[in-house]
Amino acid sequence: MATTTATKAMAGKFVFVTGTGGGREVFFGKTIDEPFSDQVAVEGKSIGWTPQGFLAVRPFTTVVNFPLKTPGFQIQTVNDQAVLEELTTIYRTAVNQITRTNFPLTFRWIESALSHEPFFNTFNGSGFRTATPRANGFNSFNPFYSFYMGFANSTEQFRRALFTSPQVTTTKEMDKITELEGDLTIEIGKITNEIAVKCNQLINRDHELGHYFQWIQGFTVPVPPTNQIAGWLYLINRLQIAKAWARRNGKTTLVRETNTLVKEGINRLNETILEHCSSLDTLITETCNQYGIQFENFGEMSPFANYTTPYSGTFEGFNYEPQFMTGSLVGAGV
Predict the structure, then answer these.
(1) Final residue of a domain: which of 86, 121, 156?
(2) Degrees to nearest 5, angle at CA 99 with 270 and 195
(3) Alpha-carbon span 6 to 77, nearest angstrom
(4) Are residues 21 and 77 located together in one domain of the fold?
């Protein structure tokens, strides 16, 4: 009696195919038939890095025949139930991008399977556009990060002005800058800690969500560490992961509760940064008038200069190196 091999029971199963696009893409989909003549037909979509560093999904479903015995291709059957749920959503809907937030398990698998790091285009010193590895794979599009950096850059500019001003003979003003920076960090930490406790209560209340987070605890770099902005970036990342999971599973109440936590945190942090920006502007004005310093703040005089729409996007990352930061720097508030 003939025996069947593992490749004979593949029809209708989800598979990952690596080695496509010179190792720069992954093809995923369902096998539409049993292997025939050492080939298998897979109906699915191709996923690969864009020049900007995003995992993009090809828009159309395609049927491709892959060889089973070619070393350059690896066909792997997916059996994990949590991953199958994500793949089913990608397969059936018009998803155009895979991120660490909306499909964390799939993102981790593809990220580890591709043969190189994502690249994006930058300008070198000669003005030519070159491909440069992304700094730990993250960009920051979180509005609060811009507010925080606006305050931080304004304090840095003002401190440099005081350092280089011979008419300044005391450390009183510089000490005030340091106190203001420390107080802002403490206030951000307090708000973050309160939201983190509520977030953990939200996750633990839903057994399925708690089990889901156990799957993704293996996140390493480039997830932002908790020492970045008092842990806020790490916290908002977890909240958006919980929201994406709740939306996929149709848990409307959980989505609303997650939105409420995000909104509460953003609003409270905005109020805090505005208060400290106002204090910094007052200190700058009084000090410059007192010592006759001609001080020019490079940038906009409002932390909301580049923020005109309500926060609705997903926080997807954070750059660790200043040369990879995008967007203009902003100054202190009025």
Answers:
(1) 121
(2) 35
(3) 10
(4) yes
Q: Cα-atom radius of gyration of the chain, to the nearest Å?
A: 25
Q: Where are the beta strands (DSSP E) in the chain?
A: 14-20, 25-31, 39-49, 55-57, 62-67, 74-77, 97-98, 119-123, 129-133
**pLDDT tens-digit series, residues 281-312:** 899 989 888 888 876 665 544 444 443 333 33
In-domain check, residue 182: yes
Q: Is residue 138 part of a domain?
A: no
**Structure tokens belonging to residue 126:** 């000669």
How confident is the model over 159-194, as pLDDT tens digits? 988 998 888 888 999 999 999 999 999 999 999 999
The two three-digit tokens of residue 155, written as one number: 């304090």
256 alpha-carbon distance from chain centroid: 21
Residues near 281 by beta carbon (within 8 Å), at least 6 away in sequence: 301, 332, 333, 334
**Distance, CA of 334 to CA of 67 (rounded, Å):** 65
Q: Rounded CA gap, 258 and 256, in Å?
A: 5
Residue numbers of the domain that contains 102:
6-121
Judge if pTM exceeds 0.70: no
Q: Which residues of 193-225 are buried (b: 16+ CB within 10 A; e: fewer)?
A: eebbebbeebbeebeebeebbeebeeeeebbbe
